[in-house]
């Protein structure tokens, strides 16, 4: 079993939502360290939220900067946000920074995809039609996840299957687990480092990611991935 991460980003504009997210991150980690976007060595500890204001403890005594753009990371997401109208305040002998949250921020959601090896005996495959070609180009599934798929190629793939190439409404055949029309993008293509003893005809490996899956299909693929994990790996 393997896990792979992907991210989706959205721009939001709600100061109170931003403050709530920061409070949640702080509860998750107890001590929440924020990093300056433009300087990896400039860090701050979140002391507390005060309504739409934020109180920080700078590390190492940097010069007061305003506005300041920071990165905060939680267990399932990270945010990039800015603070303005910064002032220095004394608190129990410490010089802390106090500033106003800028309403606009980037919210970056991490999605953890279960990536499961699939036995070649199942002969799951993707079939892609290229213009001007009569026969379908078929690749055999090596591993599967909600985010994408690893495949084996029988011989050298057509030059059309290059990194960044996009193919729409291709046929994904998962046998008893269903047949689907999916859009895919080629992520990588390379010859195998070592031949497969039982399948010497499979010479190259190609990785693709799924594009624009509907929410229903994402949920279906997630269930299939966990089913594969149980049926193909835990029973070994």
TrEMBL record:
<keyword id="KW-0282">Flagellum</keyword>
<keyword id="KW-0969">Cilium</keyword>
<keyword id="KW-0966">Cell projection</keyword>
<protein>
    <submittedName>
        <fullName>C-di-GMP-binding flagellar brake protein YcgR, contains PilZNR and PilZ domains</fullName>
    </submittedName>
</protein>
């Amino acid at each position: 079993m393997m896990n792979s991460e992907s991210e989706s980003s959205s721009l939001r504009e709600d100061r109170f939502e931003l403050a709530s997210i920061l409070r949640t991150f702080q509860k998750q980690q107890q001590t929440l360290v924020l990093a300056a976007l433009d300087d990896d060595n400039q860090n701050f500890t979140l002391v507390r939220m005060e309504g739409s204001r934020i109180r920080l403890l700078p590390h190492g005594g940097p010069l007061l900067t305003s506005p300041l753009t920071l990165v905060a990371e939680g267990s399932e997401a990270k945010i990039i946000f800015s603070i303005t109208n910064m002032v220095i305040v004394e608190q129990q002998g410490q010089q802390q920074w106090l500033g106003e949250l800028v309403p606009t921020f980037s919210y970056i959601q991490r999605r953890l995809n279960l990536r499961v090896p699939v036995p070649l005996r199942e002969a799951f495959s993707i079939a892609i039609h290229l213009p001007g070609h009569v026969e379908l180009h078929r690749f055999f599934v090596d591993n599967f996840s909600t985010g994408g798929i690893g495949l084996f190629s029988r011989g050298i793939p057509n030059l059309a299957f290059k990194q960044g190439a996009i193919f729409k409404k291709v046929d994904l055949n998962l046998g008893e687990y269903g047949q689907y029309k999916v859009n895919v993008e080629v992520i990588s293509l390379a010859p195998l480092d070592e031949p497969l003893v039982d399948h010497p005809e499979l010479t190259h490996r190609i990785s693709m990611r799924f594009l624009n899956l509907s929410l229903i299909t994402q949920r279906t693929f997630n269930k299939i991935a966990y089913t594969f994990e149980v049926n193909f790996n835990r029973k070994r």
